[in-house]
Amino acid sequence: MLLFLEAGFETPATGVAWLIHIISKHPQVQQKIKAELMSTGGNTQELSIERLDSLVYLDRVVNEVLRLAPPVDGASRTLTADDCLPDSGTQLYKGDEVFIPLHTLAHDTRLWSIDPQLFCPERFLDEDKKRNPYAFIPFGSGHRQCVGQDLARFEMKVIAARLMQYVTFGDGGPEVNAGGHVTSLTVMPKHVGVTIQFD
Length: 199
Ligand code: HEM
Description:
This protein is an alpha+beta fold. About 40% of the residues lie in helices and about 15% in strands. It has a single domain (about 1-70, about 110-140, about 150-199), classed as CATH 1.10.630.10.
C-alpha cells in the first residue's frame, strides 16, 4: 500500500506540472485541444468516459509530454543469468544491474524521425508512429512495468481536459518559466511560471 502511495502520488503530479509548463509555450497546441473538446461535446462541461476516449489529439499531447519530459528517467533490472548484448556482444553476468535510461531513449535521434528535442504531439500520428518499441517506455516495460500506468494516463488526461475547458496558459517569460529540472523521486520542472487566462 505504501509503495502505491509513493509510486502513484508524485509521478502524475510531475507529469501535470510538465504538461502545464510545456503547453504554456505552445499556444497552438492548446487551441487544438480546445477545438477537439468543442468538436466532441460543444459547450457541455461533462467529461464522460466516452468523450475522454474520443479525445485522440489529447492522448498524443499526454504521450508527447511523457516522452519529452518523462517523470521517471530510468528503470533497472538485475540479471538472473549470464547474457550478452546482441549487437555489441558485451558480456553481462548474473547479478549485474542494468540501468534502462528511459529519458535517453526518448531523446535518441537514431530512434526518432522527427527531432526528439521538439515538442510535437503529431509525431505519434505520423513518421514516428512506427518507431522502435523501446524508444518510448515512460512506464517501463516487461512484467515489472508500472501497474498504475492506465490510472496515471487517465489522471493526466482528465486534468488536462478540465483545465483546457476553462483556461488558457501563457508563457510567464524566459526566467520564471525557464523549465530546467530537479531530480528527487521524479524529475520535476524547476521553474514553472505561467499566466492563466480564464476563457
Ligand atoms: C505519470 C505517472 C507515472 C509514471 C511516469 C510511472 C513510471 C513508472 C516506472 C518507470 C516504473 C518502473 C517500471 C519498470 O521497472 O519497468 C514504475 C513502477 C511502478 N509504478 Fe508507476 N508511474 C506513474 C504512475 C503510477 C501510479 C499512478 C501508480 C499507482 C497508483 C504507480 C505504481 C507503480 C508501482 C507499484 C510500480 C512498481 C511495479 C513493480 O515493481 O512491479 N505508478 N512506474
